[in-house]
Design goal:
alpha+beta, 4-stranded mixed beta sheet, FAD/NAD(P)-binding domain, 26% helix, 11 strands
Length: 304
């Protein structure tokens, strides 16, 4: 029986998704704009007379910046955004009930050929804690340029502050080594090192109250602050894939440029399906390429 797959082909940056963010940064800066790195959102407030926003940021050293904007696009977790808006939304209490699943990856270098040919494999063995393992070379050969080395990422689903999240990096690397051996994937003696990467709020939790809580905050913000736009997985508390999360931002920019809502970004990937025709969030567009039906649907540049 052939294993099922969501798609037969995909596009992936040669040296990983970071190349996209670097290219976006360079494009923004080349246009005479500014990107503030290492800043976190401190407070967001709208002047109801002028309609302009004041965005205040903070850096770890206590310094920060104050920006003025006509529109704000937020990909911050809805729970965090509600607590930083001034005045605080009436539905902020419901936003505080939104929950997230956190995530960490232990990347392990192994003196070996690739341990398996797949991009990633899901683990269902109750003896181990790892939930998924990815093979970085299968995403792009340029990620692992040495033919005699392999690099796999053991992915652990956890909650910030729990035993896994709070473990020392060295202990997590040791755990990953033991579990690779338990799964029969490699000899621990071939492992040359490892590194841990933690990602907070990687997955919005869909509990029995999340939909009503999201809708309550969304309705209040759209009514009170129509120039505040929510995008992305955490910004919408919506478990979209990366490409669909990016699509919500791209379509939001088109809405701002048009001066009206021409795309309902909340419909992007609404049914969590991969469609072979049409464009999610814009049912009237008919420029999908049938030849790309096996690829995940993403925004494409319109023909001139």
């Amino acid at each position: 029986m052939q294993a099922k797959t969501l798609l037969e082909s995909f596009r992936y940056p040669r040296k990983g998704p970071g190349m996209m963010w670097e290219a976006a940064r360079d494009h923004v800066v080349a246009g005479g704009n500014q990107i503030l790195m290492g800043h976190s959102l401190h407070r967001l407030s709208e002047n109801r007379v002028t309609g302009r926003w004041t965005v205040e940021t903070r850096q770890p050293n206590g310094k920060g910046a104050s920006l003025s904007a006509a529109h704000v696009i937020s990909s911050a977790p809805m729970r965090e955004l509600a607590g930083r808006l001034h005045p605080v939304p009436q539905t902020a209490g419901r936003a505080l009930d939104l929950k997230y699943r956190d995530f960490l990856t232990v990347a392990i270098m192994v003196k070996s050929k690739d341990l398996f040919p797949d991009n990633w494999i899901y683990i269902h063995d109750p003896r181990v804690q790892v939930g998924r393992i990815q093979n970085f070379r299968s995403w792009s050969p340029e990620l692992i340029p040495h033919d005699d080395m392999a690099c796999v990422g053991l992915e652990y689903f956890c909650f910030e502050g729990d035993g896994l999240w709070a473990s020392d990096d060295a202990d997590l690397v040791d755990l990953a080594k033991r579990e690779l051996e338990q799964l029969g994937l490699c000899d621990p003696g071939d492992i040359t090192g490892g590194v841990v990467v933690r990602q907070e709020k990687a997955y919005p939790v869909y509990d029995e109250h999340y939909a009503a809580n999201v809708e309550a905050l969304r309705a209040e913000l759209s009514e009170a602050h129509p120039t505040l736009h929510l995008v992305g997985r955490n910004g919408m508390h919506k478990y979209n894939n990366q490409d669909h999360a990016m699509m919500t931002a791209m379509l939001t920019v088109e809405n701002i440029k048009a001066g009206r809502i021409i795309h309902d970004v909340w419909r992007v990937n609404e049914d969590a399906e991969y469609h072979e025709a049409g464009v999610e969030g814009d049912a009237g567009r008919t420029d999908a390429d049938p030849a790309l039906a096996s690829e995940r649907l993403v925004p494409r540049r319109r023909a001139a």
